[in-house]
Design a protein that fits this description.
about 210 residues; mainly alpha; DUF624; transmembrane helix
């Protein structure tokens, strides 16, 4: 009886490996974005969902663990007690800023432009700082996975002060992503949370800064 030898598995060519590697990035961004969007439906869990997603994306980029979708839920389960107070605060500030924007629009339509300009001058710096915080906190939580939220906030301050150029770049990217999602709302469930988180990890880096780092 003749035995048929099993063929050895075909080796991937260089271009196939490069293509699969390139496709993994948008796939993980979209899958992670869907997971974070589902976790963020309670509103106050939006920032905790971004934190969980950042940690899942870090595991993928650093350790080649590409189960980003399921890891986002696992990270959320392990961090929500630390991150939920930040989520409640972020939701409250978002509500206040939205109310300010609505008030400014009303003032502008009724002709009280002077008062609107005064309020806008006060609200814009707060909004910019708040947006930077939203973008930086998930990165800080991925850099310091075992620390408290106070340490996360300290890391946020360090990131913003030590890397002003990167912070400015992230601010521009954050605004661009927000505008894009407003113009194309169908993208929101897929990339509204994952794109800024991924950009933050790339721009600021997911490695904790050392005293000698740039």
């Amino acid at each position: 009886m003749t035995m048929v030898r099993a063929r050895p598995p075909a080796r991937k060519t260089r271009w196939e490996s490069s293509l699969l590697s390139a496709l993994a990035t948008p796939a993980n961004i979209v899958l992670g974005g869907i997971a974070a969007f589902l976790l963020a439906l309670a509103i106050i869990t939006a920032l905790p969902a971004m934190i969980a997603l950042a940690r899942a994306l870090t595991r993928w980029m650093r350790d080649k663990d590409d189960a980003v979708f399921t890891n986002t839920f696992r990270e959320f389960a392990s961090t929500w007690r630390r991150s939920l107070p930040l989520g409640v605060f972020a939701a409250f500030v978002t509500f206040v800023l939205a109310a300010d924007v609505f008030f400014l629009l009303v003032q502008m339509t009724t002709g009280s432009s002077t008062l609107a300009i005064v309020f806008a001058a006060a609200a814009v710096p707060i909004g910019v700082l708040f947006l930077l915080m939203l973008l930086a906190v998930p990165v800080a939580a991925s850099r310091l996975p075992d620390e408290t939220r106070r340490e996360w906030l300290n890391e946020v301050g360090s990131m913003l002060l030590r890397h002003p150029g990167r912070s400015l770049a992230m601010l521009v990217l954050g605004v661009a992503i927000t505008v894009g999602c407003v113009l194309l709302p169908t993208l929101i469930p897929f990339v509204a949370l994952s794109l800024p988180v991924y950009a933050g990890l790339r721009v600021w880096g997911y490695q904790h800064d050392t005293p000698t780092s740039e």
